[in-house]
Amino acid sequence: MQDLTPPPAALAPPSPWLLRWQRHFAPGQTALDLACGSGRHVRWLRAQGLQVCAVDRDALALEGLRDCGAERIEADLEGAPWPLGDRHFDLVLVTNYLWRPLLPRIVEAVAPGGWLIYETFAEGHQRIGRPSRPDFLLRPGELLAAAAGLRIVAYEDGFVDGDGAAVNPRQIQRVAAVRERTPGDLQARYHLT
């Protein structure tokens, strides 16, 4: 019999950066957790009533999410085509993951009125630990530039020590941004003519 107990990382608390914006999400909204790993955010978002699409290349990690009711997509985000087509989400969440060629697709996946919540390692982290390769560390202002076209609600670039969601201190960039609605978005949503 297979043990479906979530791995310890799945039981870790959600990122305080995500929790800071939680009042903007409501049951029934859609969320994408890209490179979701063991699913700590997937489980939290499902518990809040969101319809979650969990994407990761690790089939075993996704199997551990079978019991939480999330849509699970196994995909190699770095070596295969974008797995979500033209889908849009009320929340696009990315934590501790960077693949620069995907940044435009990630921003495009934010629906009108939707949020991008993104947090990952930045230059300077190599002095603290892994990841240490420049390929996996944001350059100064890079995340802010990637979110251009969205309304930036908050942006941070700096050192985080003991914020409750990570074992180790880290150098990070974080952005919270919204895709503004336009009158055309409202007409399409409510089928107005």
TrEMBL record:
What's the superkingdom here?
Answer: Bacteria
Task: Tell me a GO biological process for this protein.
Answer: methylation
Q: Where is each Methyltransferase type domain found?
A: 32-117
Q: Name one Pfam family in it.
A: Methyltransf_11
Q: Which Gene3D superfamilies match?
A: Vaccinia Virus protein VP39 (3.40.50.150)
Q: Which UniProt keywords apply?
A: Methyltransferase, Transferase
| Gene Ontology molecular function, alphabetical | methyltransferase activity
CDD domains registered for this protein in UniProt = AdoMet_MTases
Protein name, as recorded:
Methyltransferase domain-containing protein
Organism source for this protein? Roseateles subflavus
